[in-house]
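Here we describe the complex-level prediction in full. Unlike the single-chain runs in Section 2.1, the two entities below were treated as one system.
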Amino acid sequence: MHVWLKSLGVHFRAGTTVTDIATSEVKGETLATELTLSDHTGVHQAKLTRDDLVFFTNGSLTQNSDMGDKDTVAKFDRQTTDRGCFTVWESLAACDPKFGRPETFLSHSEQSNWVSFFPTITADPTFFDYIEKKTGDRAGTGGAITIVDSSWKISFVLYSKYFPDQPADVNVLWALVNAAIWSVTSLRSRCASAQARRCSQNCSTTAGSRTRLKASSRIVPCRRA
Amino acid sequence: MMPYITSQFMPRKISDRPKVVPEGCVNLAFIGQFVELPGDVIFTVETSVRTAMMAVWGLTGLKKPMIPIYEPVYDLRVIVASIKETLGIDEFTPENLHAISLSSPPLPTLIAFLNELPKPVA
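The structure predicted for the assembly as a whole is:
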């Protein structure tokens, strides 16, 4: 599609951020009149006419995300001054109530956040076997499971083979913590702490979540029922 | 760490999200997951596509019929399949419908009707 549009004379401008959209009321019509653009050469203004159409994605679920790894805790970015397209939306909404109220969605990041991570368990099927037996769902077919009595409200989904070259003795799952809205199945169980420790040590997660997983998780069911 | 990953689910008023083409706008449209779209569901690719179609057609004056929003809530086959999935059952029985007290139609008739419903079209 990119090639086709270019052949029609469409000009794509990469490396450019729209930081503001100016509007004005003209004879009962609302016109977008100017874009403020920012790129490596600085800040520019682009005047708009009535025939220049602006399609504005006024929010991104992954705005201000931060990545962690096994040795680095992902940061929780709480600043509110630069939130990309959300900031542009806030600026527009301040001009006219018909552009909505972004604060409704943006003022609750303590509730609306997830730490999303992807544990890998190698050469130990205990956890997957247990959950499959407990839920009656084969890995990859069941819904998300929320551990309702975990302090992080941890939820996870077992995947079946996820990568084409995934070895048979490697299991992967997707997990998320904090936000308390995914509650499909609840499990309340305990298991031997040594087993739990071993299982969570096998989980490749961020350092912070690994520590907290060990400290706070009461599930990690590792013993066959 | 994603601070706003479920922000689109926060309780809202209708006026908290702009329409795809707000009143009076002639060259500005809103697309994505933070747009008021009656009857549709957010956190979906479908919403992104639909708002973009509505935006382009709205601002350019294209008079094409919009694809109707899928409304499974009005499809008895879907509702019955969902209840079965939720309860983990293959068939309705008087036991799993025990809370329903009907004089007409009699419960066995209702259960037979529900169990005979075809699977929803995917």
